[in-house]
Specification:
The complex is a heterotrimer of chains A (about 130), B (about 110) and C (about 230). Chain A has about 130 residues and is mostly helical. Chain A is built from 5 helices and no strands. Chain A has a domain of about 80 residues: Nitrile hydratase, beta subunit (Cyclin A, domain 1, Orthogonal Bundle). Chain A is globular, with a radius of gyration of 17 Å. Chain B is about 5% helix and about 30% strand. The longest helix of chain B is centred in the middle third of the chain and has 4 residues. Chain B is globular and about 40 Å long. Chain C folds into 2 domains: about 45 residues, no CATH class; about 150 residues, Nitrile Hydratase, Chain A, CATH 3.90.330.10. In chain C, the strands form 2 sheets. Chain C has a two-stranded parallel ribbon with strand order 1-4. The chains are: A mainly alpha (about 130), B mainly beta (about 110), C alpha/beta (about 230). Chains in contact: A-B, A-C, B-C. Chains A and C meet through α1, α2, α4 and α5 of A and α1, α2, α7 and α8 of C.
Chain lengths: ~130, ~110, ~230
């Protein structure tokens, strides 16, 4: 689960974008170490593959642009890999590699399969 | 799939606008969309410390354009005291940022 | 086989023996988050549509797993014992890494910045979390945190203080914000007390945080040639 983060309003700072946080003060640094989860490693892997010269579905710049457009409420309250998997989703649809409907249907199937296997599955949606 | 592209870094024989040692300034201009020049250096003056070569423009790549013409990328050194009015550190502390040519102008 | 890639920074000694860091809560236990659901859905559709294969994805995961701070430490140790290599590393990091059979791929270019008695370097990416992962592996959570990204540029001494690093008063602190296609690696200074050490012994004192700039290599009572294998 994403840890609670204090969000810092950027609008009052004269037009600074949500991700452009150099010079703000988000408090003490949490130095706790933990391994990335497998889904996070796979997110990183898919990002590298889809932006590689061999595939070139889109650029990493496109992924960053999507993340930057989330707005500060979302930006400050999601983890790194949550941001990136959502961006991958948005860009594969933007580039017409699959449709929203296909993704939502597949997500429902994934939820159902894991629930059937006894795992608790969040029903929360990730806004488009 | 759109826009098959070659590598981001391009070989180019064109002369860069700036050279190491040049005094430069980052303009304060409004930004629409993706930009890799941080807010905190807008309007600040620095010195070119290295020329990295030409790279495709991320501001265009972000929207699936090829990012051409490629922009010269510079390493620019700023005095921390120039960047932050209330910087608490040494007078000779610096910050170095990689900035594209179209985000630099000669320092006034 | 378990590579010791869980560097705890210069303060690692406080953890005593290398306890495995705690797993995140969402490792197959607890509620499956919507993002984990999304990852599985997206991956399965990409495979079904022939855009990516399961083997490619697994291979890419394995590739990143094979890149760790231990790899970076080897590079630093080589630069410490071989001044000509160090020069090449500073001039063209990609080519120098290739000499050691380390291919950093097409993601980005690398550059190495050298710590000296006059200058201490520290790396950050304020705009996202760019990091030399094709050498060091995936970055630690703190490097990607809003706190580190926001404060390191404006209060680097305060941030280093949180890492337990106090620099001598006359040292210039130089921050590098990785805003474009370059990824930065810090070449720390070789501690004086390591005269005569083998490369392996030297590499053993170079932690991940030394190569980001939030730590310095430490010579402790435990470190030294006796710990690493002697060459012949």
């Amino acid at each position: 689960m994403a840890p609670k983060r204090k969000t810092m309003p950027r609008k009052g700072a004269g037009g600074r974008a949500a991700h452009d946080i150099g010079g703000l003060n988000f408090g003490k640094i949490d130095r706790a170490e933990h391994d990335p989860a497998l889904w996070e490693k796979r997110t990183d892997a898919m990002q590298r593959l889809l932006t590689s010269p061999g595939k070139r579905a889109f650029s990493v710049d496109g992924l960053r642009r999507v993340i930057e457009d989330y707005g500060e409420q979302v930006y400050d309250r999601t983890t790194y890999y949550e941001k990136w998997i959502r961006a991958l989703r948005n860009l594969v649809v933007e580039q017409e590699l699959m449709t929203r409907a296909e993704l939502e249907a597949r997500m429902a199937e994934v939820r159902a399969r894991h629930a059937k296997a006894g795992r608790r599955v969040s029903k929360a949606k990730i806004p488009w | 799939m759109v826009n098959r592209m070659s590598a981001r870094r391009l070989e180019d024989s064109q002369t860069p606008r700036f050279a190491p040692g040049d005094r430069v300034q980052v303009p304060s201009r409004p930004v629409l969309g993706h930009c890799r020049t941080p807010w905190y250096v807008r309007g600040k003056r620095g010195v070119i410390c290295a020329v990295h070569g030409r790279f495709r423009d991320p501001e265009r790549l972000a929207y699936h354009f090829p990012g051409l013409p490629a922009q010269v990328l510079y390493k620019v050194r700023f005095a921390q005291q120039e960047v932050w009015p209330s910087y608490r550190g040494r007078a000779d502390d610096h910050i170095e940022i990689d900035i594209y040519e179209h985000w630099l102008e000669p320092a006034r | 086989m378990h590579e010791d890639d869980h560097d705890h920074g210069a303060e690692g000694a406080a953890h005593g023996g290398h306890a495995h860091p705690p797993l995140q809560k969402d490792h197959d236990a607890g509620t499956m988050s919507p993002y984990e659901v999304l990852e599985e859905a997206l991956r399965s559709l990409l495979i079904e549509k022939g855009i990516l294969s399961a083997e490619e994805i697994a291979g890419a995961v394995d590739l990143m797993d094979s890149r760790t701070p231990t790899l970076g430490a080897k590079v630093i140790a080589r630069a410490w014992v071989d001044p000509a290599f160090k020069k090449r590393l500073l001039k063209d990091t990609r080519a120098a890494l290739l000499e050691l059979d380390i291919d950093i791929g097409t993601i980005a270019e690398f550059a190495t910045v050298e710590n000296t008695p006059e200058v201490h370097n520290v790396i950050v990416c304020t705009l996202c979390s760019c990091y030399p992962k094709m050498l060091l592996g995936l970055p630690p959570a703190w490097y990607k945190s809003l706190a580190y990204r926001s404060r390191t540029v404006v209060d680097p001494r305060g941030v280093l203080g949180e890492f337990g690093l106090e620099l001598p008063g006359e040292v210039e602190l130089r921050v590098h914000d990785s805003t474009a296609d370059l990824r930065y690696l810090v070449l720390p200074m070789r501690p004086k007390a390591t005269r005569g050490w083998s490369e392996a012994a030297l590499a053993a004192i170079v932690t991940r945080d030394c190569m980001i700039g939030t730590a310095l290599p430490r010579v402790t009572a435990k470190a030294g040639p006796r710990r690493a294998q002697r060459a012949a």
